[in-house]
From TrEMBL:
Protein name from the UniProt record: peptidylprolyl isomerase
EC number: 5.2.1.8
Lineage: Eukaryota, Viridiplantae, Streptophyta, Embryophyta, Tracheophyta
Record-linked InterPro entries: PNSL4/FKBP13-like (IPR044183), PPIase_dom_sf (IPR046357), PPIase_FKBP_dom (IPR001179)
PROSITE patterns according to UniProt: FKBP_PPIASE
Organism: Rhynchospora breviuscula
Keyword annotations: Chloroplast, Disulfide bond, Isomerase, Plastid, Rotamase, Thylakoid, Transit peptide
């Protein structure tokens, strides 16, 4: 399971999408070889027979051929959405007193996120040089998180729920955020494992946020 870098504690992640059930492929089994003592016509009446070993190889081969059909289609759709967020031009940032930069690429038409509720978002997260370090699009599912109660980065709470001069996002809206270190991970590196850290100290983070709405 991929780990999101959005939150200070680990955020709640939606369950992975399950592949639809595939109808099993059945091939005739061999129970015994036709007796050589039977008349020729009787032998011809037997159904076609495939040895167990050969039957198993054919099942495996057919399964491998059928497996990518769903996964490739889903991955292509996710990849298109992901690169669309990376390729969006930067808009003119407004800055709140907290230092948070924000601008709306698309103003939503739905409801704003209530404090303390679970919401769904898609996002792409980058460093100031444009390097992508995390994205819900690449995982193929939105992120579910609790907004406004300190469960995610302060810059995300303010940037999505609003406050301090920042208007709240509305469902269906897209917003870019420039989160300064004090509203992100601060002077300490984050996402560290065996001495390697995904987020350097004092990093300014850029987020492309799509607010999908309340978690249902």
């Amino acid at each position: 399971m991929a780990i999101s870098m959005l939150s200070l504690p680990k955020p709640t992640i939606l369950p992975s999408l399950r592949n639809p059930q595939r109808t099993p492929i059945f091939l005739p089994k061999c129970t015994s070889s036709p007796s050589t003592s039977l008349p020729e016509q009787t032998q011809q009446d037997h159904s076609p027979c495939i040895s167990h070993g050969r039957r198993r190889l054919i099942e495996v081969a057919m399964g491998l051929l059928a497996f990518p059909l769903f996964s490739v289609s889903e991955a292509n759709a996710t990849r298109i959405e992901y690169y669309a967020t990376v390729g969006e031009k930067l808009c003119d940032m407004n800055f709140a007193k907290s230092g948070l930069g924000f601008c709306d690429v698309l103003v939503g038409t739905g409801t704003q996120p209530p404090r303390g509720e679970l919401i769904n978002i898609h996002y792409t997260a980058r460093f100031a040089d444009g390097t992508v370090f995390d994205s819900s699009y690449k995982r193929g599912r939105p992120l579910t998180m609790r907004i406004g109660v300190g469960k995610v980065l302060p810059g995300l709470d303010q940037g999505i729920m609003g406050g301090g001069g920042v208007p709240p996002m509305l469902a269906g809206g897209k917003r870019k955020l420039m989160i300064p270190p004090l509203l992100a991970y601060g002077p300490e590196p984050a996402g560290c494992f065996s001495g390697d850290c995904n987020i350097p100290a004092n990093a300014t983070l850029l987020y492309d946020i799509l607010y999908l709405g309340l978690y249902k």
